[in-house]
Amino acid sequence: MDYINTTQTAPKDSTNVSSVFTHQVLPVLYTIICACAFILNGLAAWIFLRVPTSSALVVYLKNMVVADVLLLFTYPWRVVAELGYGGLQLKLIVCRYTAVLFYLSMYTGITFMSLISLERYFKIVRNTFGMSFFLQRVSVAKALALLTWAIMMFFMLPNAILTNQPMPKVFSCMVLKSELGRRWHEISAHFNVGVFWVAFLLMMFCYTSIACHVYRSYKRVQQDSSMARWRSNRSIFSLLVVFVFCFVPYHVCRVPYTLSQSHKDYFSAHNRFILFQVKEAMLFMSALNVCLDPVIYFFMCRTFRESLLQKMSSVNRKNKKPSKRHLAQYQQSAMIEQQRKMSITHMQDGKDI
């Protein structure tokens, strides 16, 4: 799972391509999404601080914001390290801390996405089922959120603790790990991949069931409700679209990449190099998730949407400048009003005399 590894084997004619893509193109792309995500997630966090925790959905969405903010914190470190600044000491920080935080935050966010889909399933499809009322309780949602963070930290934090070996001459994140650290790294990597596929299958089941239920409901009503159906589908399936777009490509390409690392004799140096480049590109798509999650908040949480629209409306009113026509009309009205007051004053002066 380490994403700084200078021991990647590549053909000599591919070295320049590797340097351009991984050390020049990707840092620029990460810088762009870091800037965009900082604005979007800062606004999302600011709004959610004012949104009351009144439902299980809001609990999970707030925890997704926390995971995204932690994920966003790792991007500047990666960019600076890939550009070659900071030396080996910075790469050590990335391998030991920020890389671990990156995957911890990413897979925690994936878990909360699956919990949201499960909550939507019980609320829409199984709303009369006893388990539905239990899972929709705020206290239960907070307990599940705390349990999620605890489990993910249990599997991920030892990767930071066990990266404790002396600095090697040829830098590699895996060389920094002890023997137990390399074994735990493998365990945590398999655990994270398992979390993804369980979340993916769970979400596909939940949203397929929701789609069938919504279709049957609209068909039973027998009325023209295409706009209502669009709004319902938009809010429900925005999360699934973001999940598939960001995380599925990375985990699909991760399978051959992992095989190329564990069975190097069956893969040529050129093939291993290509798989590494593809894996890095797909990992960037996963990182893009921090810019797309605010779309989920907007469509799924009515309180968040109303707060955001209200804030934007107030800012527009404050920054809106009057047109020249309105300004001229205002000045003309002011002059007429001033003349009227002067006439009244003159008449009153005449009466007093």
UniProtKB/TrEMBL annotation:
Keyword Transmembrane assigned: yes
Give me the Gene Ontology terms describing cellular component.
plasma membrane
Its placement in the membrane is given as: Multi-pass membrane protein
What is a single molecular function from GO for this protein? G protein-coupled purinergic nucleotide receptor activity
What does the UniProt keyword field contain?
Answer: Cell membrane, G-protein coupled receptor, Membrane, Receptor, Transducer, Transmembrane, Transmembrane helix
Q: Where does the record say this protein resides?
A: Cell membrane
Membrane-spanning residues: 28-49, 56-77, 97-118, 139-161, 194-215, 236-252, 281-301
G-protein coupled receptors family 1 profile domain segment(s): 40-297
Q: Tell me the domain of life.
A: Eukaryota
Name the protein family.
Belongs to the G-protein coupled receptor 1 family.
Protein name, entry field = P2Y purinoceptor 14-like
Q: Taxonomic classification, please?
A: Eukaryota, Metazoa, Chordata, Craniata, Vertebrata
Gene designation? LOC113074429
